[in-house]
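Think of the structure tokens as a kind of shorthand, similar to the way a musician reads notation: each symbol stands for something richer, in this case the local conformation of the backbone. In the example below we present two proteins back to back. Begin with the first one, reading the sequence and then the tokens, and try to describe in your own words what changes along the chain.
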Amino acid sequence: MTFAEPPRTRTDMVRLTDPGDAVPEDTVVRDDLRRTPPRLPPWLGYDAVGSRLFEQITELPTYYLTRVERGLLEHHAPEIAAALGCGRIAELGSGSAKKTRLLLEDCVHLRPTTYLPIDVDEGMLRSSAATLRSGLDGLAVTGLWGRYEAGLEWLRTHPGEPLAVVFLGSSFGNATREERDGLTGEIARCLRPGESFLVSADLDKSGEALETCYNDPPGHSAFADFRLNYLTRLNDRYGADFVLDDFVPEAWYDPDTSTVEGRLLARADRTVHVPGLGVTLDLPQGRFINVGYSVKFDERGLADEVGAHGFTPRAQWVDSRAGYGLFLFRREET
């Protein structure tokens, strides 16, 4: 089914403020640095530089996630678009939206569609919206500039046509179980019964394969530069005195928790001051700062985890060779 005269693409931008009950950004960073081991929240790495570096990561020959997800969307986007069955698509952490475009092309073929990308990088939001605007008739874009929590709150307080929330890039695994439960609960609260949640997930596999994926291959530095950019952000934003050469970026897989950890290891004993947050870090040689989780799932565990928040599994599209899939859930009647 197509529309004879679809509306031209339209773009708006909403600058979000965190909902009243959300923890302020500076408090999140301060509390995370005081953990053992210290940690930095994922969103801190996605300024303009970090977003560009992550795009480079997706092009690394050893980083299979983006290529496999793109392949799944290239083959199954018509089926997924039909299963979503809605006129509004909200995406958490939309980034460049290159893969999402594959899905949106089929969505606008079925019905006029509003795309609601949520991202902390304003420049990336505007750039991706302009790219979509140049080629997709029948698509309206309202960019939601801010953190996930604020974006979901905006969606909850701005009801409209049936909505689907999309979370691609296996980013659902970039959080602890407690954090994922909180986020899934927020997603459930902004969806009405019968509306959909589409999430991608990387399935558990050998530690060797995962550490190869999450470390730079010879001749590349995208992962290292991306992880070190977190320290640059702390220096610029909070007046910290990190010396980037004092830290070794690496990824390590923990088989007990099925988690890849991005780390910055201290080369020698270091004391670092973060005056803007009132934090001093004593880092002995070999101590690390965590700059990213990548949790790996099994299909039943993912279904149980998301299902605990009022969702029913409806369909899945899995690349069995790579162990990576797209999983569609439907919000249950309450």
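Once you have a description of the first chain, move to the second and do the same.
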Amino acid sequence: MRDLVYTGFMSLDGVVDSPGGGPGEEHRSAGWVFKDLDPVAEAWSLKGEELGDTTALMFGRHSYEQFAQVWPGSEDHASYQELPKYVVSSTLSDDALVDGWGPTTILRSAGDIAALKQGDGGAIFIHGSAELARRLSDEGLIDRYNLLVFPVLLGAGKTLFGRADRDKYMLRMRESESYSNGILKVIYDVER
């Protein structure tokens, strides 16, 4: 069985916007990740560690469209170039997929994702895609959270966790570390 891992930058109040802001992030603090904190290289080590663990990528439609404009030509993400990619969308057509960015499959439902997880292979990482992550969490399909938690309260923006009245999930700490600029690395496994 394959693990589905959500990875992201998160404010203390659960906002998970992209590092530099972008479409759909119209609140006044958009782009908060690279503002206000002293750069501490060790705080970004999680992102490098993930490169070796990632065997496939999953995106919601909007995040796919945003990442596909940048990552195919990014030297920082060259190892992702040929990895399989999965886009979860009920409306995206095959002809809208980006050429030259590895094999890409459109998944139409939570059932498709559950079936993918039952197959062979390593971890599938979700970058961005807050709405998708909330839905998959509510469906019990996320296995791990790799988070860099920033010492900021934003009050607005896309949040990682929904407010649905559902069964609780317990999380088990796999790893944690704090950095001099206040960022916390927390890696949690979802217990089932």
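Compare your description with these statements about the second chain. The helical segments are 45-53, 61-67, 110-118, 130-138.
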